[in-house]
Specification:
With 143 residues, this protein is an all-alpha fold. It is 76% helix and 0% strand.
C-alpha cells in the first residue's frame, strides 16, 4: 500500500509540474484564456490520460515482454535503462499512431504544447504505472 501512495504522489507531482509548463507555453486562445494551472492539471491533463487509454495497454504489453526477458536473463540491462527503453518505444509508437490518425483525418501536423502533451506526457504516465505495477510480480525471486 505504501508503494501505491508513493506512485500516486509522484504522478500527481508530475501532473502539477507538467501543468505549469503547459500553462506557460500554451498560447492564450479563447479556449485557454480562462483556465488556471490547477484546472489544466486536473481537468485537461487527467482527461487526456483517460482519453488515451490505448497507451496503457501498449505499455503494459511492452513492459510485460521486457521484464519477462530480463527475468529469463535474455537481456542484461539496468532497471533505469529498461524503463527508458520502454518509454522510448511507447513514444515512437505514439508518434506513429498520431501521424497515422492525422493523415487519415487530413489534418496538418502542427507542433504545439497540446500535441507534445499527447506524445510525451501521456505515455510517460502510463509507462510509469505499467513499470511499477509489473516489476514486483515479474522480477520477484523464485524459491
Amino acid at each position: 500500500m505504501k508503494s501505491f501512495f508513493k506512485i500516486f504522489g509522484l504522478i500527481i507531482g508530475f501532473n502539477l509540474l507538467w501543468s505549469i509548463v503547459f500553462f506557460i507555453f500554451q498560447p492564450k486562445s479563447q479556449m485557454w484564456v480562462d483556465m488556471g494551472i490547477l484546472e489544466i492539471a486536473f481537468a485537461y491533463l487527467l482527461g487526456a490520460l483517460a482519453g488515451d487509454a490505448i497507451y496503457l495497454i501498449i505499455s503494459l504489453l511492452l513492459y510485460l515482454c521486457l521484464l519477462f526477458l530480463k527475468r529469463l536473463k535474455k537481456i542484461q540491462i539496468d532497471n533505469i535503462i529498461l524503463f527508458s527503453l520502454g518509454y522510448a518505444i511507447v513514444v515512437i509508437i505514439a508518434i506513429i499512431l498520431q501521424a497515422w490518425l492525422q493523415a487519415r483525418l487530413s489534418v496538418q501536423f502542427n507542433l504545439n504544447v497540446a500535441s507534445i502533451t499527447n506524445l510525451f506526457y501521456t505515455p510517460f504516465i502510463y509507462c510509469f504505472i505499467s513499470y511499477n505495477l509489473l516489476k514486483p510480480w515479474i522480477l520477484k525471486k523464485r524459491r
